[in-house]
Each structure stands twice: as structure tokens, then as C-alpha cells.
Amino acid sequence: MERSVTNPPPHRYAGRGFDRAAPRRKDPTWLASRRADPRTRVVLMHELKAVIADAATPRLHLPSLAELNMELPEDAPLLGELDGDAVFTVSLAATHPLAARASDVREIGPNLEAGEAGLAAYARALAYWHDTHGFCSRCGGPTWVDEGGHARRCDPCQRTVFPRTDPAVIVLVHHEDHCLLGRAHHFPGNVYSTLAGFVEPGESLEDTIRREIFEEAGVVVTDMHYRSSQPWPFPASLMLGFYATAEARTLAVDADELADAQWFHKDELFNPMTRPVSLPRPDSIARWLIESWLYGH
Questions:
Q1: For 28-66, what is each residue's pLDDT tens digit?
Q2: What are the backbone dihedrals phi and psi of residue 81, each rounded to the nearest 5 degrees, phi first?
């Protein structure tokens, strides 16, 4: 029995049907005109949460400036263009009436239309970066928004910084008809997932995979194959998905890293109704890695 996989590429939170309009970021005349254009649309945020259309509908609120009856501030970041209209994002004060309709992107993301989920995640990532980079890490001076919200500049030391994304590998380790899944200490319920870890300075992706899998589970891996990637801006990661073959089904679990790790046969996991564990979130690349291996996609 063949089954379809959850969250196939392009994975949720990736941009779909959306132009980031990178050349426009350095065009102050164009930016100023679009900040005053009534057709310009806005992704509204409050405390890293996205404003939705209403409490009962999992749709991103994407009003035009005409609907909002406002001009955007000069530091409002440009997200890009959608159907020919500019799209910016702006953070609302707690007293703004629309702030009450803000929802955590991680909670609503799986239920949003795919393009809206990508926009909401993109806006959240920029909002987080601006919130945490108000001062220069070199001299401590204040920074100001530049390049349409995609850079911050420090005048005292003439330094420009750009939004940071942390690369992380996420790996479906398999051996014959078994796969290795682990349970982190913070996972809810009985969820088991693929193993993952951040790339360290001076490491290749392959080095990271070998190190992380051995550190967490005591497993030596070979034959690493890149599969796909997913932006995961919670707060600022890029998940790089791989398959890797284990030399043997031995385990030496690091209790500081994982609450548990086990080898599971395909037969144990194939039927969702009889699985001994729960699989990861449906909006995650981890879920897709497991199911695409499990169902032979």
C-alpha cells in the first residue's frame, strides 16, 4: 500500500509565488513611493506573532495601505512583491487594535495556505533579527535600518550587518529496513524524530553529520545524501535534510542530548494507526524525511 508523504518540497515556510525583489532594497526612491502606495500590502506583526484575518480563520491578514489608512514608517522592512504589489512588514504596538489578533506562527503555520505561511515566517525572521540587533556588537553604538530592512548600519564604526541564518543538518539515519529516531527532552507526548544539529565554525555539512550522529547516538554513518532544505525561522535556522547509512545498529545514547533513541523497523512505522511512537510536526522537514524513506518516495 503506497501512501503520500506529508510536507513535500518546496516545504512549508519556503517562498512560493513570491518575488523578494532584492534589487529594490537599495532604491530609496522606489521604497519611498511604495511606502505611500495605497495598493502596498502589509504583513502585520506583534511580539513576533503574525496578525491573522480573524480568530476563526487560519488566514494571514494581508491588508493594503488603503485599508489600513496609514503610511508605513521609513524603517518598515520590505519583504518583496506579490502579484505586482509591494509587501512590507511592520510591528504593531500592544495598544493597536489589531495586535489582539496576533498568533504564534509556529502554531498557525501548519494550517495557513502555503504561500501565507512562507510570508509569515519571513516576516517573523526579520522582526526577530531587528529586535536583537539594535546595537553594534563591535562598538556598542546604535544601529539603523538600511537596504529596505535587510541590513543594519552602525555609523560610529561604519559596520554593516545582515540577517543571520544558522545552518543545521537534519538526518534520517537508516540501516537496511530500520531507521534511527530520537526523542529530545523537550518533545511533547511520545514524539520521536530525526537527529539534528547545528553546523559549527570550520565544519562541512558532512563533518557535522558524522559528529552529531556519533555524539548523540554513538552511531557511525556513511553514504550521506542531500535530500532537501527548509527555512525554519524559529528563530533563525535553515534545516538541511540528508539521508545517511549507519554502519551498524549499535547505540550509545548521550543522555544530555537525548531522552531516548531507538531503531524502528519499517513495519512498525508504516501504519499510522499502530505506530509505537508519534512522528514530528506535519510542517517539518523531519516528517517528510521519515515518510519519504518509509513509503519509498
A1: 999 999 999 999 999 999 999 999 997 677 899 999 999
A2: -130, 140
- Residue 257's identity, in one-letter code, is E
Q: How many residues would you count in the chain? A: 297
**Is the Cα torsion angle 114, 130, 165, 19 positive or negative in sign?**
positive
| Global pTM value | 0.94
Q: Which of 191, 139, 130, 199 is nearest to 170 (CA)?
A: 199
Give a three-class secondary structure readout of the chain: CCCCCCCCCCCCCCCCCCECCHHHHHCHHHHHHHHCCCCCEEEEEECCEEEEEECCEEEECCCEHHHHCCCCCCCCCEEEEECCEEEEEEECCCCCHHHHHEEEHHHHHHHCCHHHHHHHHHHHHHHHHHHCCCECCCCCCEEEEEHHHCEEEECCCCEEECCCCEEEEEEEEEECCEEEEEECCCCCCCECECEEEECCCCCCHHHHHHHHHHHHHCCCEEEEEEEEEEEECCCCEEEEEEEEEECCCCCCCCCCCCCEEEEEEHHHHHCCCCCCCECCCCCCHHHHHHHHHHCCC
